[in-house]
Specification:
single chain; alpha+beta; TATA-Binding Protein; 3 domains; two-stranded antiparallel ribbon
Length: about 300
C-alpha cells in the first residue's frame, strides 16, 4: 500500500491527568507480547491496528505535560471517514487507558509508605493494555509453558502471516489479526499458518477453537459486566484457565477490581516492595491488596512494572 494513496487526518486527545506519555513509551519498549510492529521515536509512538477490518496507522505524539497532557494523533488509512476516525480514537483511548482517573488510586497510594517509591517513579503511568482484547487472549494461551522469547516470535508470526499491514513514510506496520482471520485467511489455509506460527499442534487446535468461540463474544459486555460474570465468560474459551482469564481481565480489559492470585510471581513481586525481598505470606499480601479496594489490580500492575524495570 503506497503512502501516496493514503488518506490522513489529525486530531487532539486530552488524556485524564496526570498522564506521563514517557512512561507509556518506556513500557512499550519492553512489552513485546502484542506482536505488532512499532516504531518508538523521541516522544512519539507509531503502530497500526485494524479498524472496521482495515489497517489504520496511528502516529501519537505528546505535546503536553503530565499535569496538562495533550496528544496529537495522526491517522493514515486507505479510507478515512467519520465512523472510522471515531472508532480509531475510541480504540486508542482504550488501548492506552487515556480516560483512566488515577486520582482515587493515588490518594490511597499516598498513605502507603512502602509503595511511595513506586508511586514517585511511575507517577502518571496509565496502564498500557493490548491493541485488542483478542490479542490478550492469544497471548494468555501462547505464553503457557512457553519461554517468553519464543512466545514473542509466535505473536509476531501471527501478525506477519494472518494480519494486515500498512506502509507510511517507507515504514511497514503490521496489525494483530482479528479472530475471524484465524478461521478464514487468504491464500494458505489459516490453520496451517497458525501451525507455522506456533510450531505446536495442540496450541494450534486450541487457538482455532478460541478464535471460533471469540467471534461470538460481546466485548462491550465484558467491559460492563460484573467482574465475576466477565471472568466466567472468558474462562468458557477452551484452553484458558483461572490465571489466563484473570490476565485477560486485567491486561486486556483494564478490570482493576481484583488481584489475580494465580500469578506465579505475585508474592515475589510484592515482597520486593514491602518486605525487603523476604517472602510475604499470601494472607498479608491479600490485606495489602484489599486496602486498594477497586484499584487493587492497578496496584499490583504498578508493583510488577516497578520490580521488572
Amino acid at each position: 500500500m503506497a503512502s501516496t494513496k493514503l488518506q490522513m487526518t489529525s486530531l487532539t486527545l486530552l488524556p485524564k491527568a496526570p498522564f506521563d506519555f514517557g512512561h507509556t513509551l518506556t513500557f512499550l519498549e519492553e512489552h513485546k507480547a502484542n506482536g505488532i510492529v512499532r516504531k518508538i521515536l523521541e516522544n512519539e509512538l507509531r503502530f497500526a491496528m485494524n479498524i472496521s477490518g482495515k489497517p489504520v496507522s496511528f502516529f501519537v505524539k505528546s505535546m503536553g505535560t503530565p499535569k496538562k497532557p495533550r496528544l496529537e494523533l495522526t491517522l493514515h488509512a486507505k479510507k478515512l471517514n467519520d465512523d472510522i476516525i471515531r472508532q480509531a480514537k475510541e480504540q486508542l483511548i482504550f488501548y492506552l487507558s487515556l480516560d483512566d482517573d488515577l486520582t482515587p488510586f493515588y490518594k490511597l497510594a499516598d498513605k502507603d509508605e512502602a509503595f511511595k517509591p513506586v508511586l514517585r517513579k511511575l507517577y502518571g503511568y496509565h496502564q498500557v493494555k493490548f491493541p485488542s482484547i483478542f490479542t490478550s487472549v492469544c497471548w494468555a494461551l501462547v505464553t503457557q509453558r512457553t519461554p517468553n522469547s519464543f512466545a514473542y516470535l509466535t505473536m509476531q508470526r501471527f501478525c506477519e502471516l494472518l494480519g494486515d499491514a500498512i506502509t507510511v513514510d517507507g515504514e511497514r506496520y503490521t496489525t494483530f489479526p482479528e479472530a475471524k482471520r484465524f478461521l478464514d485467511s487468504r491464500g494458505l489455509n489459516a490453520r496451517d499458518k497458525v501451525l507455522i506460527a506456533t510450531n505446536n499442534t495442540r496450541k494450534t487446535d486450541r487457538l482455532m477453537e478460541i478464535a471460533k468461540a471469540y467471534t461470538s463474544v460481546d466485548e462491550n459486555y465484558l467491559k460492563r459486566a460484573s467482574y465475576d460474570e466477565a471472568l466466567r465468560t472468558v474462562k468458557k474459551l477452551k484452553g484458558l484457565g483461572q490465571w489466563s482469564a484473570e490476565y485477560v481481565l486485567l491486561r486486556g480489559l483494564g478490570r482493576y477490581e481484583r488481584t489475580g492470585w494465580t500469578d506465579t510471581v505475585i508474592l515475589e513481586s510484592i515482597s520486593q516492595i514491602y518486605t525487603g525481598g523476604f517472602r510475604i505470606s499470601e494472607g498479608d499480601a491479600k490485606k495489602l491488596a484489599e486496602y486498594y479496594g477497586w484499584y487493587q489490580g492497578l496496584w499490583f500492575h504498578y508493583v510488577k512494572v516497578f520490580v521488572n524495570d
